[in-house]
């Protein structure tokens, strides 16, 4: 984004404006935010059982499950209202900053809590703040990144989940702080990381920030440079001190707001349910949440009971098992961009299946760590492309934007995590004859197995069912899947017939882009001929 050009004398450009508005900086800030959000949740997983023991509780696995459930309940409660509100009013940076302040308050409350109900309340509040971080953050990436690179950027952002779990959350950092400095130390560490998070978010420059900057430096009225709807078409104002109008590119929510396309929450939900491909992305998130949520309250207790390990050793196990997921996100995103999500999702889910039965073994802890590592790696790889799938479906469905799709994915993930934590904790405690761990492992195996049909039939632009049972024309060499998928006119693989995007908003957006190009060409002629352009109006 390079809209800062031709500044009048004496008007300083924003500091480091180029990298502050770049797609990679926005992606890195969101990735860090997601990692720190995960940190505040995951740092308590290996130490909560020990804290509950210190406070005199007895049903440790089930009580831990209830505390984990409380955060998921807060996320489920607030996600859909957040998605609907910030689709209608497309603020991005401000809610991300406020959510960090709320998260800090929730951490302070949990740190000072000695009563179980206040711990539940703190977890619930943190879940409400978490939904803003994930939903609005991923939407910010989707709106500021080119379509052909969306997969790798979203993959990197989603790897923030693994980053928070491995390096700073469930690695020895959290457990060592608890072991040597007490219960409050991990939360003080989290609050410090959250302060850095809000500091980074202050540097993000969105397109709207660039437009407001131009209006102020040129002495124009507010919204003078904002695209407007004239005679049924979106028109972008031009000014002789601005050569690059990339700041005026509207996201899907803004375009549809100008065009008067506004669905109520039930219509949004109905439109999303109608897309099998979109529902597959949502179910992938649900499956991942169920797999990870079921393990969270029981794996610490399992390691402690079977090998008599303390919190330091449990943290080290988590670190080793989750470290590979740090680099898998961008790689998986690139593969999904290049070849299609279906080439990642189905093979990864198939590779999840062997590991739960292997984790039933009671041999050495080294073998257990290896099994846990591969289970965690492939379950993460299976869900990473769901962000790209959601972005594609949102851009092809009238009345739906990225924030709707990411919002429902967050609901699916939080609901599954809540169910998983309750199921895992209670099954581990209640199943007789010390068979709770066996029941949990076979439950994970069944969930992974049941998710395969939907991924086989509906994931990706060219699902596996079509690859196997239909003859396809070969793809043009060197052309990425994302380019084929996000083009205005797609080539149908089966019959070679062109399909058209029937989304009216997309057609209007293409007209607007052409109009903007004409405006810029007209401006160049204007400087030479000293007369106004015929292709756009001037402020």
Question: Keywords for this structure?
Answer:
2% strand, disordered C terminus, two-stranded antiparallel sheet, mainly alpha, Growth Hormone, Chain: A, 25 helices, 539 residues, globular
- How many DSSP H or I helices? 25
Give me the side-by-side strand order of the main sheet. Answer: 1-2
Stretches with pLDDT under 50, minimum 5 residues: 1-6, 473-505, 523-539
Sheet with the most strands, sense and barrel status:
2 strands, antiparallel
Number of strands: 4
**Which architecture per CATH?**
Up-down Bundle
Query: What is the 3D form?
Result: globular
GO molecular function, one term: transmembrane transporter activity
Pfam families: MFS_1
Keywords: Membrane, Transmembrane, Transmembrane helix, Transport
Protein name: Major facilitator superfamily (MFS) profile domain-containing protein
Please characterize this protein's 3D structure.
- The longest helix is centred in the middle third of the chain and has 32 residues, at 276-307.
- The chain is 70% helix and 2% strand.
- β1 (228-230) and β2 form a beta hairpin.
- α8 (172-181) packs antiparallel against α14 (311-322), α13 runs antiparallel to α21 (436-450) and α19 runs antiparallel to α20.
- The protein has one domain (17-206, 274-464): Up-down Bundle (Growth Hormone, Chain: A).
- The protein is built from 25 helices and four strands.
